[in-house]
Amino acid sequence: MAGVEIIPVTRRAHMKAFIDLPWQIYDGDPNWIPPLKSGMAGLLDPKSHPFWRFSERELFLAKRGQEPVGRIAAIVDGNYNQYHNEEMGIWGFFECTRDPEVSAALFSAAERWVRNKGMKFLRGPLNPSTNHEVGLLVQGFDSPPTLMMTYNPSYYPELVRYCGFKKEKDLLAFLFSKDYEPPDWAVPLAERVARKNEITIRHIDPKKLEAEIILLNRVYNECWAHNWGFVPMTEGELKENAKVMIHILDRKLAFFLYYRDEPVGVFLALPDVNPLLKRFNGKLGISALIKKYLHGSDINGLRILMFGVKEHYRQMGVPLVAFDHLMRVFRNQEKYQYIEAGWTLEDNDAINRFFIEGGADPYKRYRIYRKDL
User: What is the pTM of this model?
Assistant: First the structure.
């Protein structure tokens, strides 16, 4: 058997092989959702995507002979390290055949690169940060992922542990059907909170999108400021994400929470377009438009993408008002049959206990790994 060769991605042919590799890894896997190749190329492009204005990366491709057998990205997120006063390197966009020799070679390359940048530990997978897709799936391989949630073969955790990485944090995903009932005390309490504390809901106005994005970014960053792994999303990143979101946005499921005249929370759930993306098989164009027209009804679920309330207002019950509103809209929309709340931190006891008390259990678990260098 030919040895493993690690190649920095410096040519167009290398990048094409890097982007195309998952189609080899997941061949025959019914639960894999192919990403849009153009979207992946744009996300990884240092010249165009706003994440790279403050970050660096090196992409590595593993080959045996002429055959690509693995890939990884080594990343330094300058904003994160400045915000947390840490020296963190990141690994992400990992794909690999079931071959410990290949994974070891890939992680060694990533470790050397971030160490040369002065980093003291390596964390991942982040693709490329907690504001994008994160975590390695470790439980829940029997169903497809929802929008912007990761999926991987069940042998990946074994490869990662083999390379010396240990669990740092787990992320949980909960699934709700139309039959889900919040705890008995939740709905009447939410109604009292809204009346007593003058909590109101204002839906995002697509006609004032730029101003709404600026407000959303400010409120989101304030709400999440003290959460584990958080890094403020820049306005450029949010605008880049909005270019995609605006095409699938359901206005009833994107709203601000106000206390009197002050925005104190933000909520965004998006239609889960993954069933349609599966039909696209990574490609846009005329065929994708036809498939969207023919199979638009495949989109019958939601994923909660953003949910935050400023710390001072959480104890007032504002999150209950948001969740109650979500469930009312959900039950009144025939086209939506499920909601995924993903992800939540494993030690976010308040929200996890609330979901579990209502009868929902985590149906998927994702893991963030760490290795000191």
Answer: 0.95
